[in-house]
Amino acid sequence: MSPRVVLPGGTIGILGGGQLGRMMALSARTLGFQVQTLDPDASCPSRSVVDRCITASFADIAAAEELAKGCDTVTLEIEKVPLPTLEAVARHTPMRPGASVLHVIQHRGRQKGWLARNHFPVGPWREAHSADELAQAIGALGGRCFVKSSEGGYDGRGQVEVKSAAEAPAAWRELGERSVVVEAALDLQSELSVLVARSPKGEMAVYPPAFNHHEERILAWSLLPGPLPTQVAERATELARGITEALQVEGLLVLELFLLRDGTVLVNELAPRPHNSFHSTEVACLTSQFEQAVRAACNLPLGSVEVVRPAAIVNLLGDLWLREGGPRFEDALALPGVRLHLYGKRDARKGRKMGHLSAVGTTPEDALARVKAAAAVLGV
């Protein structure tokens, strides 16, 4: 029997009330749904746009069950939700994606191992559980490596670049003396990402790959569709479909990918939620990633992923707000094709994502030039 469809007028729960949850909630409201969320932060960005916000730890089983009992389906905007919480939600209402997907993704070593065992391409890597094991792994991988905490870490946090095994003790201490994944540095040409939506009845929709540029390990700008050779885009899409099907995802899955200079496409990491590199779908595509997340969680027919016009985004970090006078948004908005998207965060901090600019153009390159011009006006 096909899973039940949740129709407009029903209630969607979201674990996490950050900017991704906020943008999902806004799309859900447009479709006619009620929205409830759970987040540890009493002033989270979603609070002002949802019907109810439960302030509680993600580990609070009672609070998660309270959310689930009031919702027809629950999804998430952050992967750091403990598995017992996801399992508790699923006892009361559909949890999409479910605990089995998060079990693979939440731990980098487990994720890399799953990808390798299922014959999906990853770069050379090792797992280490002590400073000595870390030194051995760095040596085995050739010296220059990226060392990442096995759990947690986001926007460049929880990882250290090393150039030799001699740096292992310092890296081990910096990352909290806990399990780490060690990845060999690669000869990268570019970074890209692919977003897949899969409904409970097995329908899939894959967005064209996005082309991404990072600065200080934080996404600086992204371009959709990415200017990629046809064979690279096809390989990225093939991997996205294969991994999504193998994991039996219900909801969204994003593949962060590396393109090597020899044309090889490797999987870097997986994210079971909306993704920063696909914010441009709001202005580029017939169906935004946020509406698609709602459709998938509710088992509704998935929307078209057609790119109507190329688009690009530039992230706006808290650094802008810390400057004297703050950002002059009116100057950026005066440029043609530019839109501003703010997340409703109260406290600006260096490196914190506060919003983004988007722009459309006649070509991807035109869209990127426009959004970069708007960002330059703000001083990015």
Automatic annotation (TrEMBL):
Keyword Lipid biosynthesis annotated: no
Binding site for ATP: 108, 148, 153-159, 183-186, 191, 214, 268-269
Keyword Metal-binding attached: no
Function: Catalyzes the ATP-dependent conversion of 5-aminoimidazole ribonucleotide (AIR) and HCO(3)(-) to N5-carboxyaminoimidazole ribonucleotide (N5-CAIR).
E.C. designation(s): 6.3.4.18
Pfam families registered for this protein in UniProt: ATP-grasp, PurK_C, RS_preATP-grasp-like
Pathway linked to the protein: Purine metabolism; IMP biosynthesis via de novo pathway; 5-amino-1-(5-phospho-D-ribosyl)imidazole-4-carboxylate from 5-amino-1-(5-phospho-D-ribosyl)imidazole (N5-CAIR route): step 1/2
Residue span, ATP-grasp domain: 112-298
Lineage of the organism: Bacteria, Pseudomonadati, Myxococcota, Myxococcia, Myxococcales
Protein name from the UniProt record: N5-carboxyaminoimidazole ribonucleotide synthase
Catalytic activity: 5-amino-1-(5-phospho-beta-D-ribosyl)imidazole + hydrogencarbonate + ATP = 5-carboxyamino-1-(5-phospho-D-ribosyl)imidazole + ADP + phosphate + 2 H(+)
Family affiliation: Belongs to the PurK/PurT family.
Matching HAMAP family: PurK
Subunit structure: Homodimer.
NCBIfam families: PRK06019.1-5, purK
GO MF, any single term: 5-(carboxyamino)imidazole ribonucleotide synthase activity
GO cellular component: cytosol
Gene Ontology BP annotations: 'de novo' IMP biosynthetic process
Keywords noted in UniProt: ATP-binding, Ligase, Nucleotide-binding, Purine biosynthesis
InterPro entries with a match to the protein in the record: ATP-grasp (IPR011761), ATP-grasp_carboxylate-amine (IPR003135), ATP_grasp_subdomain_1 (IPR013815), PreATP-grasp_dom_sf (IPR016185), PurK (IPR005875), PurK_C (IPR040686), PurT/PurK_preATP-grasp (IPR054350), Rudment_hybrid_motif (IPR011054)
